[in-house]
Amino acid sequence: MLFQVYGDNAVWQWLGWILVFCCLIGANELARRTKTGGIVAFLVVPAVLTVYFVTIYVAAAAGADWALNNPTYVHMTSWFHYAKLYAATAGCIGFMALKYRWGNIGKSDWFKCFPFVIVAINILIAVVSDFESAFRAWGTTWVSTEGVTLMGGWHNVFNGVAGLINIACMTGWFGIYVSKKKDDMLWPDMTWVFIVAYDLWNFCYTYNCLPTHSWYCGLALLLAPTVANFFWNKGGWIQNRANTLAIWCMFAQVFPMFQDYSVFSTQSVNNTNVNLAVSLVALTANVLALGYILIRAKRQGVNPWIQEAFKGTRDYEQAIARAE
């Protein structure tokens, strides 16, 4: 098994997974359907949390006991968590600018490449983290600033390469649209080909580098936007992904005890062979996805990054039918 979901806490672990999955889907729907919901979720709440985070660190530097013992200060000290939170939030704000056509930026054609840029940045943050483990502890283990034991080796390299390939699998960078109902930013060319490759790569990243969190941020968090895209929000996957990621990062940063030391806590098996197998699956999927994209682009005579490569496919046509 990939996770230690057996024993006395198994029922709580599965219940926790179901709660996270359902809450993320619900929170995404609230944030995407109205302008007020999006502003509260991705402008107001992050602003309040920023004040909270700064206050904690200033107070901790001054030696205040409440800050030194604060769960966020003790358990969420890695640079990665803050980078991911603010990069994901920036993506949500940029997507709202495009969706609601805020200002000159939201109305401009050049800004339509923003989704590609911010997703690439988010992928690179994770790739750097994978390579960090390989560099710090090749063939052995190291303990992160949060006290988590991580393994370094080929699994990190293979998945880091998979992440770089995954960036190249994003096609139709300027093919960004607004839905007729004005509730979604659509990227029709981001079909199941990319989504599956991304999900496998990102799951492997969390499995390699966040073994105590991967049950939630590697499975529940990835499946929530994917399910929404496949069943009722076709073409809106990247918006779903950014929304759920930002919301999850905010929750996890303030309430780390949910994952780290409660009945809901779930560990991966943390086995080198398992990590290697997962990374090879992720790398293979991304190589196949990029190969398919290049073959399709050659047959159509298009540049798959500047032009849309998946016109005529079922996913693309269902998504573009929702555009205004």
Automatic annotation (TrEMBL):
Pfam families, per database record: DUF5692
UniProt entry keywords in alphabetical sequence: Membrane, Transmembrane, Transmembrane helix
Residues annotated as transmembrane: 12-31, 38-59, 79-98, 110-128, 157-178, 185-201, 213-232, 244-264, 276-295
Name of the protein in its database record: Uncharacterized protein
